[in-house]
Amino acid sequence: MSIQAVNIKDKQQSLQLEIRRMTVYKQSKIIEATDEHDQIYYIFFHKEQYLNYVTSKKITKRSHVKDAFEKGVTLSPPHPLIEMVVSSLPHFKKQNFNDLFKKLQQQYTFQETALIASYFESFIKKEKLAAFIQTLFYKDRRDGKLLSCYRILHILKDFAPNHSLISTFSGDLQFTKYDERYKNGDETFLAKDPVHVEKRLYSNKHHDLSFQKLTALYKEQSRWLDIIAIYITRVVHTQTQKDYHILHSLIDEHFIGMNRLHLLEDLYTRGLEFEPLKQDLLNLYMEDEKLEEVLTFIGKHELTLQPSQSQRLIKIVKQQEITADATPPEGLRKLIMALFESKDDQAADFLHQAITSLLNERDLSYIQEWTQPLRNISLAKPILQKVDEMNRIVEDPNEQRRLGELYHYFHNPEQAIECMSWDMELREEDPKPVQWLAKLYSELGMEEEHRAYQQLYIDMVKRS
User: Fold this and answer.
1) What's the start-to-end Cα distance of the chain, in Å?
2) Which has the minimum average pLDDT: 215-219, 285-289, 324-328, 446-450?
3) Of the four listed, 80, 182, 290, 332, which is most buried by Cβ atoms within 10 Å?
4) pLDDT attached to residue 1
5) Residue 172 lies inside a defined structural domain of this protein
6) Which of these, 21, 38, 77, 80, lies nearest to 254 by C-alpha position?
7) Cβ neighbour number for residue 460 with a 10 Å cutoff
8) Average pLDDT along the chain
9) Are 387 and 368 within 8 A, CB to CB?
10) At 431, which CATH number?
């Protein structure tokens, strides 16, 4: 799989980073990337808006970044959702945090600004961040925006639960009137606080009702990328075709041109293995003519090919001139069956090539078992009869010459030499195994051995 990269810029210096992973967590998206010296960078987004990037050797145990990678939807490259985020800008500029926080206050509510500031714990001293959030609280308090103050207080409580501001105002009668409405889940009241609603719903997103409400919230905010992200975990959690088809519909409607292959591979690696996904992956591998992946996937899951899939597979094989030794055994068998079913002229030759290849790595009992699904194919029988014969005589000392001939038929001169050498020892006066050994060493390019056995053969014929 290819590597995704991202470009960053600090003043006049630009740098390309290799993306390790990206997480989608509540309103945030965080990309973890490295430079050529393995320095780690974290690139932050709020919803789809770029915020800033930082460098770090480690993240603190209790921080937004740690929570995001543990509790969010973490994606590995290449992934279309990563591509959508990094393609939003040609490069991501470094900026001073003081300048960033000033801009945030102009673009967002103070509550949301406080939330964004909390993302950067691990990279800015906690006391400094808490002090900034406290200033937002007092600004709103001076303006008489008590409900906003209450919401900022809860952001601070999540971020720094022991902060003095929490104890100072936790029992304030101006704020306690809001407590009951939040605790009782007043829908009309809470609808005006989407940050709190998302926080509550996200932690319960695997429950059907919470998931439905969360997706409704995202739709209302046109956060389609976030919907796709939570549907990835939803499909893996429910393992239902219904959710899988909804995910497809969302992609069709909002993400035309998205590379589905990498998205479906991501679902597969997360543990989704039901039949619709397998068939979709198989078809996409075929569309991209990824023959190795096709044959590996077919073999691993013992998939039955539809006639159209068989024809497509044969077409790809002929275009790429595949060889049996580069193909996984189970996928190779499916390919051979498809060739025979289509009455392809190359079917028998490919079966012969397959057994030749397998003999270099597997024993005869494995090959006989491997050929079982091919037993009802009449055109395969002449070759399969030779495999059966080899299994029948493999332990018979009187049949070593015949076994050597069969190994030679399957282009395995090393095994053939072993058999002929045994036969020569048993039949010391018979020149035939010696003649065979001269021939086999010649085919291997071992001229000294070839000449020695050729001369021995001539001498034996003269004496007879």
Assistant:
1) 65
2) 324-328
3) 332
4) 37
5) no
6) 80
7) 16
8) 90
9) yes
10) 1.25.40
Token pair 């939570």 in the structure block, residue: 230
Domain boundary among 74, 94, 114: 94
Check whether residue 415 and residue 379 sit in a common domain.
no
Q: Both 371 and 461 in a single domain?
A: no
Same domain, 300 and 384: yes
- Identify whether residues 288 and 328 lie together within a single domain: yes
Residue 132 in tokens: 């900034």
Whether 281 and 386 map to the same domain: the answer is yes
d(CA 241, CA 293): 24
In 3D space, the residue among 352, 368, 366, 332 whose CA is nearest the CA of residue 412 turns out to be 352
Cα dihedral across residues 440, 442, 446, 450: positive or negative:
positive
Residues 415, 390, single domain; the answer is no
Q: What is the pTM of this model?
A: 0.78
Q: What is the largest CA-CA distance in the chain?
A: 120
Kindly report the number of other CB atoms within 10 A of residue 436's CB atom. 23
The owner of tokens 């051995």 is 449
Cβ–Cβ under 8 Å, residues 424 and 433: yes
Is there a domain that residue 430 lies in?
yes
Read off the amino acid at residue 91: H
Structural domain count, the chain: 3
**Lowest mean pLDDT across 247-251, 343-347, 368-372:** 343-347
Per-residue pLDDT, 53: 96
The parent domain of residue 422 ranges over 411-464
Within-domain flag for 401: no
Residue indicated by tokens 């003269």: 462
In a domain, 326, yes or no: yes
Task: Please tell me whether residues 388 and 416 are part of one structural domain.
Answer: no
